[in-house]
Design brief:
The protein is α/β, with parallel strands linked by helices and 277 residues long. Helix content is 24%, strand content 19%. It is built from 6 helices and 7 strands; from the N terminus they run E-E-E-H-E-H-E-H-E-H-H-E-H.
Length: 277
């Protein structure tokens, strides 16, 4: 059963719809959209929200609603969507048929789907072309990797990126000390951490974040280090040969470490990449 949208009153400008991509006509994606209104920019702006691995588009609705309510006289067009097998998009990715459950399409496939979705939304909702608007990608967690790869794959199309609690695409997320390693020294553990607790945390973290771990939407992350092998290159290109505006926001490391004890460590909150220098 699909996850319900949050119990909140949404502005009437936000519409909920489904769409079948022309490249995958047998499955539908669920999306939320708001048509921009009298925005100050001379060029139409489309802000696209990209979900993390364990979230769906409902997490963006308060932000979208807030932008509209705080600027009723003018706001950019807004789009959030659930990827295949995520949130209200109950249909599985058609190309996952015949593949191992939970390990189907990869981030490159997601990027292709995103480009097709944007193309169709721009045509059907904004009645313009990709060359006639400015794209801003707002992303969380693995959505940041999707945003990076999209901007890299379609240079000159993205004007700005806002990356929230980004992830390391070129890591296997094996950050915890390994008791089975030859150089492991139990004396380096904190007094309140036993080997049993460490092993439990390693297993729990791996089940969620290890690139080889299956997930509900069937997104295969095992080749992500090959798709984005470097943290600092290639440099991203925005419209007109300019660099896209990049903003990276992270949790406060100490607070996030406390909030994340059940799944990870404060290392997960750090930001390693500066892509638009």
């Amino acid at each position: 059963m699909a996850a319900p949208e949050p119990a909140m009153m949404l502005p009437r400008e936000l519409v909920q719809e489904t769409i079948a991509l022309k490249t995958k006509p047998t499955a539908k994606l669920h999306y939320t959209f708001a048509q921009g209104k009298d925005f100050t920019s001379k060029t139409p702006v489309l802000v696209i929200c990209l979900n993390g691995l364990m979230s769906d588009k409902s997490t963006w609705l308060p932000m979208m609603a807030g932008m509209i309510r705080k600027q009723p006289a003018g706001f950019p067009s807004l789009l959030a969507y659930d990827r295949y097998g995520q949130g209200l998009s109950e249909d599985r990715d058609p190309q996952d048929q015949g593949r191992e459950p939970g390990r189907g399409h990869d981030v490159a496939d997601v990027v292709d789907d995103l480009h097709q979705l944007i193309t169709q939304i721009v045509d059907s909702r904004l009645h313009t072309t990709m060359d006639s608007l400015r794209l801003v990608l707002v992303a969380n967690s693995i959505g940041c990797a999707i945003a990076r790869l999209y901007t890299q794959s379609y240079p000159g199309t993205v004007t700005g990126l806002l990356l929230l609690d980004s992830m390391m695409a070129n890591s296997n997320f094996d950050w915890w000390p390994n008791p089975d390693a030859a150089d492991f020294d139990a004396a380096e553990l904190s007094a309140d951490v036993t080997i049993e607790v460490l092993q439990e945390q390693r297993a729990k973290f791996a089940r969620i974040f290890a690139p080889s771990s299956p997930n509900k939407e069937g997104l295969n992350r095992s080749n992500l280090p090959d798709l984005l092998p470097h943290s600092d290159r290639p440099l991203l290109q925005g419209p007109g040969g300019r660099k896209p505006l990049l903003t990276v926001i992270e949790h406060d490391p100490e607070r996030f470490a406390l909030e994340s004890l059940q799944v990870g460590s404060k290392q997960f909150a750090e930001i390693w990449t500066v892509l638009a220098d």
